[in-house]
Amino acid sequence: MWRTIFNLILVLLLGACVAFVAAPWFAFRALKANARDGDVQGLAELVDYDAVRGTLKGQLGPTPNATTAPAPTIWTDPLGAMKRALEPLTPPPPAVERYVSVQGLHDLTRGYEPGKGPPEPPAPQGLGDQALTLVQEPWPSLRYWGPNRSRFVVRGPDQPARETVFTFQRRGWFEWKLVQIRLPTEAKAQP
C-alpha cells in the first residue's frame, strides 16, 4: 500500500518537473496558435506588450545619439522632471505596431517579416493529416533555457540564416510571457 502511494507521488512529481521544463515551449506554441487564429485575448495573456514594444523600438528606431542629455531626474532638475512627466506620452512608431499586431506576430512566429508571409494553408481534416502537418511544420529551436528565462529561434523558411529570437520570461510557476523579440540583422552586401 505505501509503496503504491510512494510511486504515485513520484510519478506526480516527475510529471510536474516535466511540465515546468516544457512550459516555455507550450507558451511559444500557444503564441503561434493565438496569432494564427486572431485570438487577441489569448495574446494579451502571453505577451508583455510594453516590454516587447520597448525592445522593438530600440531595434527599429533611430539609434540614440551619444550627445543626447539624460532625462532630468527629480534630484538633479525637479522642474524639468515635472515638465517631462506632464508631457503627453508619445506613441510608439508605426513600424513597431506592425510587428506586435496579430498578423505581425503570426508572420514572425513562422519566420517571415510582418506582412510578407504566405497565407496559412487550410486546416487538415483527418487525424493522420493533422499529425503529418505537425511533423512537417517548422519547429523553433531552443537557444537558451533557464528557470526564469528561455529563448527560441525561428529561422526563415526561405533564408535559414535569417533568425528571429523570441525571449520568454517566467511570471508564475507555469506562466511564461513574451518579453522580447530580437529581429534578424540583415546581412549587408559586401563590395
TrEMBL record:
<dbReference type="InterPro" id="IPR021330">
    <property type="entry name" value="DUF2939"/>
</dbReference>
<protein>
    <submittedName>
        <fullName>DUF2939 domain-containing protein</fullName>
    </submittedName>
</protein>
<dbReference type="Pfam" id="PF11159">
    <property type="entry name" value="DUF2939"/>
</dbReference>
